[in-house]
Amino acid sequence: MVLTMESIPIAADEWIVAQGLVGYYRLLKHAGIKVKLTDEGLLFDPEHLENFEHHYFQFFLDRYSVAKRDERTIRREFAKLKQASKLDGKEAKGKIQMAKKTLDERIKLTALDKVEKKFTETAATNRLVKAAKAIRNQKAYTAEMDEWIEEYITALEEQEIDHKLTLNYVKAKVLGAYFGQVSFLNVLHTAKTLEEQKTIFRKEYIEPLLLDLELRKVMLEATSAQKVLQYLESSVHGKAKDLKKKFKNMNIDEIRECISTKVNRCSFFKTQWAFEQYSESHFSPLSMSAPKALNFYWGANNTLTTPISKLAKLILFCAPAGASIVGETSLFVQLEGRFEQLIRANDVYEIGRSKEKAFDEILFDLVAEQRTKAQQVSQSYLILEYSSDYNAKKTDLQYLHLTPGLCNLFNSDIYQRWFLQLNYRLRNQLVRSFLLYQDPKALIQSHLRMKLKENYIGNDMVYACLLRHYFLLYTKKGEKIMATDLEIGRKRIWNAYYAGLDMKKKLDEGKARSIAYRLLNAVRANDKNMFLDTTMRMYMSLQEALPPVIMNVLDESKIDFPSVADSFIAGLISTEEEKNEK
Question: Mean pLDDT for the chain?
């Protein structure tokens, strides 16, 4: 089938289409094929469909290679085992056992539970299983293990093993969450070879699209009704018979009028005809923007009709390639602007993920990427984070909104240093609460309480209080925020922190912890009088004057009560440090 149709411009309007287009672009780029971009999206060229099924499978086989993933784990744990074997004592024994346990579990899961039990026996599988058993049977490190490890990794990299393991993983954990068991994803096709599954994909996604494009070309170029009917007579298009019956007694103008008014237009691409209805099999992770919301397309029983074209169907099937997927969670960055910027934003996240960076670190990279191109960040990002359970028929979807105002909080070198003072868990949770535009007051309280319970110092919590206060100011005042507003709040937070730090020196450890618990309860209940009464009694018992920052805790005209109170508590459970920030 030869098509001479011109390229079709596709705009990245809705986020699911944008994700599909980014995936389509990545698939072809991975295959070394250049795709022309426009400001709004890209140009779809029918020539891209030649060998597209090979490009599709190869992308996922390379991206989610089980051999590469296992090799990283195996080499890391084996290096730990070798290093621990050089040590003496009980600590060394524990490290050896831990590294060997992780190593054995990974090898057992891949080589024994999957390859030995479920794969056809071949020379490659026998090599893998033999090396796996040799490694697992050795309780402590020996020089022979170096050779066994290399033999195991080499056998695992054999295409007949790696491709089958990877394809099974991709179908179950990546594509299955998006499309259920359509096409080659159906469990009935599990035993089929890779080439057989490619053929199924082409038959159900590529060839129907080519027929749609051919039908459109004929309709546009036909000079008479007879030529249209002759084409429909020989065509294998799924709707050829119905269209022939409908056009039987029409002239060419009537046929074009009918095709223009009676045939559905695609809900995603208005220039395309739609001969089927959208359903969860096209893209299941589509739900209302609420946590744990049921997908509103599920169980619709045709009461909701959303026409979809074969082109849109293919583009949506590329969506998993456009997301960054970790475990069962997909993430996609949507933004207003040129499509090239959209691709770059998602590449920044994917590159960061591949380097095992934390979410907040990737976010800083995303903001820094824009800062290199402009002195101030004026872009607004919508970060979609979601997971879909096809069998449970629901999707968990969160919208994380990074506005230009919030970018300022992540864009400043000073604020980034504050973020880096926090432990990984708190920093990540704090960033997510900011993106969800949630006040992290309860989060800070929880971490203060945890530090008290586990007897940890709270030096870092003052930075969490600072960031929370600045976040509240940025979200409340936006671009109208004044430097004096930030300065007043910063000074009061540090004054409260050091007041608590000075007080701790004058109390025994048990007394300080007891008072800290009472103050935390007062802040959680937003009981300002209880907080003030407790601190006054404490200072009076030591015949100390109440610091001005505590005396003014009821005045919230410049800074809220929890920011000051939590900072004081942080000081009460902290240790002495340099007062350079103050």
Answer: 87
